[in-house]
Write a structure and sequence with these properties.
The protein is of the alpha/beta class. The chain contains 20 helices and 20 strands. It folds into 3 domains: 327 residues, Alkaline Phosphatase, subunit A, CATH 3.40.720.10; 38 residues, no CATH class; 105 residues, Gyrase A, domain 2 (2-Layer Sandwich). Strands 1, 2, 5, 6, 7, 10, 11, 18, 19 and 20 form a 10-stranded mixed beta sheet that branches. Strands 13-14-16-15 form a 4-stranded antiparallel beta sheet. It has a two-stranded antiparallel sheet with strand order 3-4. Strand 8 and strand 9 form a beta hairpin. The structure holds zinc ion (ZN). Zinc ion binds next to loops.
Length: 557
């Protein structure tokens, strides 16, 4: 029997030994993990051809334009819990930014990185803590530090406490975040103040500068490239799209300090301090490989306050691009061999009022009839229970039963409510899911673009923290009414505009390539571990190592 020549050629090729395997290059000396809060794949696609600075550099490495924060709870806490841990929020224990449960003897809202057991603490004035994170949740920094003989140092900074502590881990050398209560950057209550100032000498100067700015804010002009985006859009009683972001409120110092976050200046200050951490501690220039985690929050605050498609976001994109350019230049000048992994904690969706003007009239806002008191009344009428029965945080998503719903009737009540909601809101919601039905599902795996809604909910499901019922809004429906200051647009849905984020890797000398198929943010930890030869026990992460070597060599074990 004779084989066709092409078949013989294929058979011979497949029997040839692999050309190369295993980590090919020397490990980098510094890993820079960056999260740009609310940097969706859609925003990246719009802007990638217009960057000229640090974000342009990131497009010249290995590009995964369709990364996934695969879970349904597309919020900052769940998202950041995946980036340097390699596990889904369900396994990390982070069901949402906030959930309802018992604060001591009182039923109330609990924040993802607070210790609600500290006497006197409240949901809004709390002690930052990682107590809600599971034992399986180990960050890259924690894993590297645990290797005997490794001299890794770990530094982290963010415009939000949750952005910093969730990328840093439990054993970081310094973890800093902007806190409006402190009117500047701060750290854990237990941090030694003298050590903090030794490690971040610029801290007091940057905080003083923020203080001066709050007293007399200077809003930078809108870059000329953004003028074409000026187009006022009414969102309830508010107007967006007028131009540069507004100055902070001046009625109280607290409001001014809160509003500082909604300006380009937040990321500039964050990167000033990140740069100072590198220089003062000679990160990337000592015995081990160091880790610097940076979560840049202004894109998120500006996205919430002004939407994603206006001149305000344009100003932010150009400002961030320019500042990251300076940041990378500073690392280059110190001749540090570093690798950057840049992604986001979740995506985002523009204000529906602008969508309507921009050829997408199907965008809208969720029915107000999905407010918790309405569900509470439905249950009261059916079951005869008294008092408030349901709590929620947004229209749609998780709804929690209060202690007024008897524990032994909860599964029954959830099943009845699901059927009632699907009948009453037929066509107005994508579906309702009970805790019991999600709990039965195995942890999803495989291509996240193909997961069902229930599978997405499962990936951020934590039995003791997830709501009793989950309402999936229709695609394109924002979970909040119009007119809330600082909140014209948001994220948090199980839809791909909130799940898809770019995942970008850059290192000097890297051969660029692009892989458009879906990958996940849980792949980042095993990928970086591959670069530094850090062993990852099989099964201890949900992601896989992405081979960053173009060609037959591999950066994975
Ligand atoms: Zn976020």
């Amino acid at each position: 029997m004779r084989f066709a020549p092409w078949l013989v050629a294929i058979a011979m090729a497949s029997s040839m030994p692999a050309l190369a395997a295993g980590p090919a290059a020397t490990p980098p000396k510094l890993i820079v993990a960056i999260s740009v809060d609310q940097f969706s794949s859609d925003l990246f696609a719009e802007w990638r051809g217009k960057y000229s600075g640090g974000l342009k550099r990131m497009t010249q490495g290995v590009v995964f334009p369709g990364g996934y924060q695969s879970h349904a709870a597309t919020e900052t806490c769940p998202g950041h819990s995946t980036i340097t841990s390699g596990i889904h929020p369900s396994r990390a224990g982070i069901a949402a930014n906030d959930w309802f449960g018992m604060r001591g003897q009182k039923f109330g809202e609990i924040y993802c990185v607070e210790d609600e057991d500290v006497p006197g603490s409240t949901h809004d004035d709390y002690i930052v803590s990682l107590k809600h994170l599971s034992a399986d949740w180990q960050t890259l920094g924690d894993r590297m530090k645990a290797v005997p003989g490794n001299q890794t140092r770990v530094f982290a900074i963010s415009g939000k406490d949750r952005g910093a502590v969730l990328m840093a881990g439990r054993h970081a050398d310094q973890t800093l975040w902007y806190d409006w209560r402190a009117k500047g950057f701060t750290s854990y209550a237990s941090t030694d103040a003298a050590q903090l100032r030794a490690d971040v000498p610029l801290l007091d100067a940057v905080n003083a500068r923020i203080g001066q700015w709050l007293a007399k804010p200077v809003i930078p002009p809108l870059p000329a490239q953004c003028l074409a985006k000026v187009q006022p859009v009414a969102v309830g009683k508010l107007t967006i799209g007028r131009g540069a972001e507004e100055g902070p409120r001046t009625d109280t110092p607290e409001n001014a300090a809160k509003d500082f976050r909604t300006t380009r200046a937040l990321d500039l200050a964050t990167l000033d301090l990140a740069e100072n951490m590198v220089a003062a501690n000679h990160l990337g220039q000592k015995a081990g490989t160091d880790v610097l985690a940076i979560s840049l929050s202004a894109t998120d605050y500006i996205g919430h306050a002004y939407g994603t498609e206006g001149p305000e976001m344009c100003g932010q994109m150009l400002s961030l691009d320019a500042r990251l350019d300076k940041f990378f230049d500073a690392l280059d000048r110190q001749k540090i061999d570093y690798v950057v992994a840049l992604t986001a904690d979740h995506g985002g969706f523009d204000a529906p009022e602008r969508h309507a003007q921009n050829a997408y009239p199907a965008a809208g806002r969720a029915p107000m009839m999905l407010a918790a008191p309405v569900l509470s009344q439905m249950l009261a009428k059916q079951f005869g229970w008294q008092g408030s029965l349901v709590e929620n945080r947004a229209l749609g998503g998780d709804y929690w039963f209060t202690p007024n719903v008897p524990v032994d009737r909860r599964a029954e009540a959830a099943a009845w409510l699901k059927a009632a909601l699907e009948a009453q809101f037929k066509g107005q919601i994508a579906g309702a899911f009970t805790k019991a039905e999600i709990a039965l599902l195995p942890t999803p795996s495989g291509n996240p673009a193909l997961w069902t809604l229930a599978q997405r909910i499962r990936a951020s499901f934590v039995p003791e923290r997830t709501g009793d019922i989950y309402i999936a809004l229709n695609n394109g429906q924002q979970p909040a009414p119009a007119g809330i200051r600082g909140f014209v647009a948001t994220h948090g849905s199980p839809w791909d505009y909130d799940r898809r984020v770019p995942i970008l890797f850059w290192r000097k000398g890297m051969t660029p390539f692009e892989q458009p198929q879906p990958v996940e943010t849980v792949d980042i930890l095993p990928t970086l571990a591959g670069l530094v030869g850090l062993p990852i026990a099989p099964g201890s992460v949900d992601g896989r190592c992405l081979d960053l070597e173009a060609g037959p060599a591999s950066s994975c074990p």
